[in-house]
Amino acid sequence: MKSLYIDATNSGLSGDMFLASLLGLNDDSNKILSDLKELKDYLKGVSELDLELLKVKRMGVEVYRLKLLIKESKNHRTPDELTNALERYLEDKQYSKSAKEFARNVLNTLFKAEAEVHGDIVEKIHLHELSSVDTLIDILGVTKALDNLGGFTGDFTYYCSEIPLGGGNIKTAHGILPVPAPATIKIFERSKLVVMGGPIESELVTPTGAALLVNLNPKFTKYSNQMKILSVSSSTGQKEFKDLSNILRIFYGELVEKVNNQTLLPLRDYIEEVVVLETAVDDVSGEILGNFVQILEDEDILDIQIIPSITKKNRPGHIIKILCDPKYSFDLIHKTLLELGTLGVRFYTNKRVCIDRKFEKTTIKINNDKYELNLKISYIQLHDSIKIINVKPEFEDLRRISKQTNLTIKEILTYCQSEVEKHFRNNN
């Protein structure tokens, strides 16, 4: 699973810093910057717009910095103006569906924070600093850079360090305000991220930086998770400080699952991906559900479950869960839609450990008569041996012998016990 760890302990976070670091992880950063320059055609009042990714030194360390040249005549815009520009840009450029949703959420987070701070509705707020074209540059640039890394697929996770907010005061269109800015702290208010004041008296986190981070919903961790690092990118902002490097670091890599017990190492060879299909129905009869299960018995499924439930309208219903190989998922979704008439099927990829199994024929003796049956043996292949996990008689064989002997299945299982024990003894 791919992952990003955002280390902001020595920098805080602004939109341009975040974008600069992510551009350092992208092979086509020039294409992203070239497209972003076209934003001057999407907002009225922007006469000049240029972007360049530079390499500069901060405290002797070479890092990325985004150079912006912006000339615009407007000093405030409405939420509608920014929203319309963002929507048109998203439609004109190639963004995934999930990426578009992320960009919209970030912009709406900024609007809602401003509205709450000023005690007004979103439609009536007047944006000042946030109305500049650089807000859209940060949002759309970060979104595209993450989209290129696969950051909006289900198989991607985000982590981040604690976030230093800075301190002191900042001059805004509304006058001198304390750091962090009211909109910034409002954005963090509902998140689960860990923030701290200081370590210097300056604004270290901007509202746009906060909105971008919060909408990624990263998990807080003091240090980077165990990962196989593919690339590391560092960036800085426009400010230089005497006692703070102001360097943001982003680690991009593949998470490595922790195995604490060496005896569990062989299980890593049994990891496989499966897809879980899930839908809920409250208007399907028992006969149709039973027929659906019978139909799927002839399909390439691994398992199926039907779970009774109560829907939001207090009607009895059923949750249907199907486990399958990823390559069969869409065929099974199509069949589920046709057979059940449901409006949608949820699906997600998961991992499972599925160990080896084999069948062995054996015989048991009941009242001097011998009966054949199959034993299902599950096991783990070790370096030079196997470890048996379970030995189980096949149920169809038990039922057949039950009919032949007029004994219950429970009674027949007692006759099987010696054969089961024999396999465990031979394995030790």
What does this structure look like?
The structure is a single chain. The protein is α+β, with helices and mostly antiparallel strands. It has three domains: 254 residues, no CATH class; 74 residues, 2-Layer Sandwich (Alpha-Beta Plaits); 71 residues, Ubiquitin-like (UB roll), CATH 3.10.20.300. Helices cover 33% and strands 32% of the residues. The chain has eleven helices and 18 strands. It has a five-stranded mixed beta sheet with strand order 9-4-1-11-10, covered by helices on one side. A hairpin with a 2-residue loop joins strand 6 and strand 7. Helix 3 runs antiparallel to helix 4. It is elongated and about 100 Å long. It starts with a strand and ends with a helix. About 1% of the residues have low confidence.
Topology:
Layout lengths: L1 E6 L7 H9 L5 H9 L8 E13 L2 E12 L6 H14 L4 H22 L14 H16 L7 E5 L2 E2 L4 E4 L2 E4 L3 H8 L5 E2 L10 H10 L2 E2 L6 E10 L10 E9 L15 E11 L4 H11 L4 E10 L5 E9 L4 H12 L5 E8 L2 E11 L2 E13 L4 E8 L1 H11 L3 H18 L2
Parallel strand pairs: 1-4, 4-9, 5-8
Antiparallel strand pairs: 1-11, 2-3, 6-7, 10-11, 12-14, 12-15, 13-14, 16-17, 17-18
Helix pairs in contact: 1-5, 1-7, 2-5, 3-4, 4-5, 4-6, 4-7, 6-7
Strand line-up across the major sheet: 9-4-1-11-10
Low-confidence stretches: 259-263
The SS-based structural class is alpha+beta
Major sheet size, sense and barrel closure: 5 strands, mixed
Give me the number of helical elements. 11
Helix content: 25-40%
Following the backbone from N to C, one meets helices and strands in this order, namely EHHEEHHHEEEEHEHEEEEHEEHEEEEHH
Task: Name the average pLDDT.
Answer: 89
Q: How many extended strands?
A: 18
How many independent structural domains?
3
Q: In what range is the share of β-strand residues?
A: 25-35%
Radius of gyration from the CA trace?
30 Å
> Span from first to last CA?
37 Å
From the spread of the alpha carbons, the general shape counts as: elongated
